[in-house]
Specification:
The protein has one domain: 3-Layer(aba) Sandwich (Rossmann fold). The protein is globular and about 45 Å long. The mean pLDDT is 90. Strands 2-7-1-8-9 form a five-stranded parallel beta sheet, sandwiched between helices. The longest helix is centred in the C-terminal third of the chain and has 17 residues. 40% of the residues lie in helices and 21% in strands. With 198 residues, it is an alpha/beta fold.
Length: 198
């Protein structure tokens, strides 16, 4: 059973890897800590250096993730084949934040985007890098230990997402290098226009 939400309580901020959707999300939460919270996604990927369980992601072993999906604790899930990794919405996290009257920002893929549009009338915002050539550098800065092979795989994924997933979103915001402040302001303006109480 899905938790109930007030109108305009969930907003989706997504984009291809390296677009900066997490940075924009964190900046909005920094400005409105009592009103806005990020949905913490569940995943089967290995934590990166410094990442904390329950704060950055809920990290599950694959068998535990699949068991929670079967028990309806994961309400929408995605499998990324070329990384052999699952992601999904962890119901206890979503429920807790909605019950506490937060505006919840979900950084999800197109599967999650469609889910939140259908079930929660979420406004959906697609973040794009100013230039796709910026993406490999951003990935390298974010995770210096990432191999060239991994960067290339993620870059290919990003190009595919830009081509195939953009049409499913209500808004597009360009997050060019050095223009984070402008991108954050644009997202907040969209949220206010759409009736979110920030």
């Amino acid at each position: 059973m899905l938790p109930k939400a007030e109108p305009k309580q969930i907003v989706v901020i997504s984009g291809p890897t390296g677009s900066g959707e997490s940075t924009i999300t964190n900046e909005i939460i920094r400005r409105y800590p009592r009103k806005v919270a990020r949905l913490v996604t569940a995943t089967t990927r290995v934590p990166r250096k410094g990442e904390q369980n329950g704060i950055d992601y809920y990290f599950f072993r694959k068998e535990d993730f699949l068991a929670k999906e079967k028990a309806d604790e994961l309400v929408e899930t995605t499998y990324i084949k070329n990384r052999d990794t699952y992601y999904g919405t962890y119901l206890p996290d979503l429920q807790g934040k909605l019950d506490a009257d937060y505006i919840v920002i979900a950084n999800t893929d197109v599967v999650g985007t469609k889910f939140y549009k259908q079930h929660y009338d979420a406004t959906t915002i697609f973040i794009m890098p100013g230039n796709m050539d910026e993406v490999p550098d951003r990935l390298k800065k974010r995770n210096p230990e990432m191999s060239e092979d991994d960067i290339n795989k993620r870059f290919d994924n990003a190009k595919k997402e830009m081509a195939e997933e953009r049409p499913f979103y209500d808004y597009e915001v360009v997050n060019a290098d050095g223009k984070l402040e402008e991108s954050v302001e644009e997202v907040i303006t969209i949220m206010k226009k759409e009736g979110y109480n920030v």
